[in-house]
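Morning. Coffee machine broken again, so started the prediction first thing and wrote up yesterday's gels while waiting. Chain of 117 residues, entered below exactly as on the submission form.
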Amino acid sequence: MKEIKMTSHVSFRLPEEKWEAISRQGASSGETPNDWCRKAALEKLERIAQREIDMSPAERAIFEEVSRIRFLLGEGFYLLASDGLTLDDWNLVRKKAQEKVTEISRHLLSSAQTNRR
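Came back before lunch.
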């Protein structure tokens, strides 16, 4: 396999506590702090290239909750409009919203990205 020639470098300053945290993370995976940072930056760049939206854990939790609410509203109004709303049906919808939140969120993200193009 051909080795990639690396000709550029990135340098930045960190507070001591952040440097120590990066050093610990790198050591736990058998990497130097510089290798760990390079890998993290390249992984983020790859996610951006694949059109994934990068969210913090808090942003992801909020987005999943909004997705769940949107799903419940849509399904609830559909059942009401079609005179199909029963307690059993609504409980199934609520269960699906709870168990499939990741799938629901991905669908909402992909449809939002498609609509932006």
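Residues 57-116 form one domain. Going to sketch it on the whiteboard this afternoon.
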